[in-house]
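Most newcomers find our protein records easier to grasp once they have seen one. A record pairs a protein's sequence with a compact description of its fold. An example says more than a description, so a record of this kind follows:
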Amino acid sequence: MNEILNGSRVRAFFLSFKASLLSTRFQTEVSAMKKLTYLLVVVLVSSLAVGGLAFAQGNEMKTYRNEEYGFSVSYPEGWTKTVMNYKGTAVLSVSAYPDPHNLSITAAELKEDLSLEEYVRAYDLRLDSLVRYQDVEKRKETVSGAEAFIRISTMAKSGNGGTRGKDVYLKKGAMLYTLSFSTSVDSYEEATEEYLDPILESFKLT
């Protein structure tokens, strides 16, 4: 369980890392003969509070709305919620502790004129240079009526199966939205059907 929670915290760290905007600029190669410059801020999401109850199918959902950053989402009523705001970046984290299911949503305004595809490509290059992921899948889907890039990957694989997560990237105007869900590898399929799919269906850009 400790390894799974550690994997979730690392994923939450890189969630805030990838959606961030710092005053220090650096360039990342995103394709041959082209370099992107984007801003980075490291927002370390604090460890999620304990005490949340596991969500049972059929229970009520609670809705979180953020008018400033233009989104709303519903999540199981018994899950623990944490909200952070840091230098123009909003981070919502919800957890099913003691179950290993965790969801983080980051909303941030991009200061650089990047398309969603350019941002995801640049982020993937940076992330893959820092963390070794396994079984990576990438595809496009439609979420909240907008084109979304999907990344599914496994991290910290070991005897207990490690952590598997799904990251969803959307862009509306200058706003970038990232939804990052993680759980144990063994419970990923069931948790996706029971929790993540309804949460993604409820996610709205306002």
Summary: Residues 77 and 145 are 25 Å apart (CA to CA). The radius of gyration is 16 Å.
